[in-house]
Design goal:
- This protein has one domain.
- Helices cover 63% and strands 0% of the residues.
- The chain has five helices and no strands.
- The longest helix has 28 residues.
Amino acid sequence: MRTNDRILDFDLDLAVDRPARTLAARLARLQAWIGSLRVALRNRLAANSLADLDERLLNDLGLSRGEVQEVLRRHGYTDDPSQQLTRLARRRAERSLRGHKSD
């Protein structure tokens, strides 16, 4: 019978190997996070305004009211629903170009 010794080496002293982040680096990360949050909120407000459009205009954009409401329900207030809405509109446009009837 053969036995193999298995040794697990846990490197628990990670703080020694990693240099401390400077205040400037932390502020830069915070500024980038705030910027992305601002863009997400702006896009969320724009997506909310899509729900106010009538069905004809939404259809021209390649969306339906149900799709817009579903995407807005699934995403949180700080999430950016614009990518999902763009994908839905592109899919509908591709189906239309292939001759499939849109819903």
